[in-house]
Amino acid sequence: MNPPALLCIGEPMLEFSEMPPDGAGRKLYLQGYGGDTSNAAIAAARQGAKVGYITALGCDPAGEALLALWQQEGVDTTGVRRDPNHQTGVYFISHGPDGHRFSYLRKDSAASHFGPTDLPEAMIARGKILFASGISLAISPLAADAVLAAIAIARKGGAKVAIDTNYRPTLWPPARAAALTHAAIAWADIALPSLDDATALTGLTDPDAVLDFYLGLGPPIVILKCGAAGAILATRDHRTPLPGLAVHSVDATGAGDVFCGSLLARLIAGDGLESAARYAVAAAALSTTGYGAVAPIPRPADVTAVMARTKAA
């Protein structure tokens, strides 16, 4: 069996997403799955990539549910450690006039106790791309050490490294987030900041200034995610705007994760950089047409169909 080409590291979580009230006005929640790098892993697997996930889960029903999900989606779980002493994280999504809000129950989670000695080194060394995020670094100092060690293993083995900023102010202050996330990005081949994250971490608001900053850290490729507006692809030589797609969006949870996973899957499949990024924009847009982080992640036929319709319009 071929080893996974894409390795994702971080914290998966059980998700409860707020739904419209029922006829009696009661608030309802749809149970699903989340965790940014887990969402990206599933998105990549749905696009046809061979993907492995690296984390720790509690020996609890939430952990069992996540294992069953990955197995169903074809995500390799060889790199998943079970922790009998700590729980799997849980979070709630609510919706308001300013967008979606998150409430986390993740303190002292199993993933936060995953360290460098738990890494599946041989699997990482044989991979083509290692993907991590600011959340992967933020959940604990031990988890941050694991991510940095995984980056070193990947680079030594010849794999590419991709980092999504994914800043969460509830996890750590902006100064520490900027220092550690940007240190990781300095070792990356692909940086995947969002405009909102970049503003919080750098104070910059102009997209070109943000791209200049992240290219200046060292990665040869930076793709700035701009929400519904799409993305901007930048290298040392050129910048290409990638307009967003007009869809009926109901929940943007995990859209950035779908972008990252879809992009990396298409790069692994051999697409050119711009082609892969345009595909990722379409996949991310489609993921906002349903509720929750995982259920609405599209399949290739849906993505190519909406891209064809957009091109023909």
Structure explained in plain terms:
- It is a single chain.
- The protein has 313 residues and is α/β, with parallel strands linked by helices.
- The protein has a single domain, classed as Ribokinase (UDP-N-acetylmuramoyl-L-alanine:D-glutamate ligase, 3-Layer(aba) Sandwich).
- The strands form two sheets. Strands 1, 4, 5, 6, 9, 10, 11, 12, 13 and 14 form a ten-stranded mixed β-sheet that branches. Strands 3-2-7-8 form a four-stranded mixed β-sheet.
- A hairpin with a 2-residue loop joins strand 7 and strand 8.
- Helix 1 packs across helix 9, helix 9 packs antiparallel against helix 10 and helix 10 crosses helix 11.
- The protein starts with 5 loop residues before the first strand and ends with a helix.
Keywords summarizing the entry:
about 325 residues; alpha/beta; UDP-N-acetylmuramoyl-L-alanine:D-glutamate ligase; 10-stranded mixed β-sheet; 4-stranded mixed β-sheet; about 40% helix
Write the layout of secondary structure elements.
Blueprint: E1 6-9, E2 13-19, E3 28-34, H1 36-46, E4 51-58, H2 61-73, E5 75-76, E6 80-83, E7 89-96, E8 99-105, H3 121-126, E9 129-133, H4 134-138, H5 141-157, E10 160-164, H6 174-185, E11 190-192, H7 195-202, H8 207-217, E12 221-225, E13 230-234, E14 239-243, H9 255-269, H10 273-287, H11 300-312
Parallel strand pairs: 1-4, 1-9, 2-7, 4-5, 4-6, 9-10, 10-11, 11-12
Antiparallel strand pairs: 2-3, 7-8, 12-13, 13-14
Helix pairs in contact: 1-9, 9-10, 10-11
